[in-house]
Amino acid sequence: MTAEIKIIPAGRLPRLDDRPLEKRIGLIILATDHTTEVDFRRMVASDRIGVYVSRIHYANPVTPENLLEMQPSLTEGAGLILPDETLDAVMYSCTSASVVIGDRNIEAAIHASKPGVPVVTPTAAAVKGLQALGAKRISILTPYTIETSRPMADYFVDLGFTIDRFTCLGLSDDREMARIAPDDIAAFARQALDPQSDALFISCTAVRAAEVAARIEAETGKPVVTSNLATAWACLRLCGDDRARPELGQLMTRPYGEG
């Protein structure tokens, strides 16, 4: 039985803000990703910046062929993030796929549904981050196999970096990469860093390296750039957040595009 309650119209429509939050970042992440949302919630999201996520299909193992198969999903994935509304940045969260697909191809795919939005990839953000830190000689640590690591080595060499040491852990499942213990990430990082290098890059958005980047810097005396640290830094700077946050690592004290 319907209760006899009188429902009264308010008499006017509510006032609407232009946006619920001032800035909004879209993330395109793998269906298997355990780490990116957690890192962005910790480093990026705030009462000013909203982070909105779309997941796309991905099937392990991590091989160049499987990574390339994500390219057709990027346009739809971007379009599902607040459809018909503008974003301040869209970040595609896969480092190894960014190498295989290519930064420009990723940008074009995202622009097909989100025209003109700044596009961030872990590879392009890492390059900007290393440049901001003045790094020209680098060491690289990846969780991948040699087959998947090789294109990444070529990517950085082609952009003018000298690689003093390249270490890979031999994993092929990104869910296992997400389970590498932070203490072990730090231990492998210390081993991977060549004394001649200006900085260390730790690849893979699945790896929980951003949470120990500042610790590795304190232990080694060298700057550390990780995939999620670099993309978080890039997205914050694109949203006009220029605060220095040294507790997250040296990169978070630098302006975007410096160097």
TrEMBL record:
<dbReference type="InterPro" id="IPR053714">
    <property type="entry name" value="Iso_Racemase_Enz_sf"/>
</dbReference>
<dbReference type="GO" id="GO:0050076">
    <property type="term" value="F:maleate isomerase activity"/>
</dbReference>
<keyword id="KW-0413">Isomerase</keyword>
<dbReference type="InterPro" id="IPR014332">
    <property type="entry name" value="Ectoine_EutA"/>
</dbReference>
<protein>
    <submittedName>
        <fullName>Maleate isomerase</fullName>
        <ecNumber>5.2.1.1</ecNumber>
    </submittedName>
</protein>
<dbReference type="Pfam" id="PF17645">
    <property type="entry name" value="Amdase"/>
</dbReference>
<dbReference type="InterPro" id="IPR026286">
    <property type="entry name" value="MaiA/AMDase"/>
</dbReference>
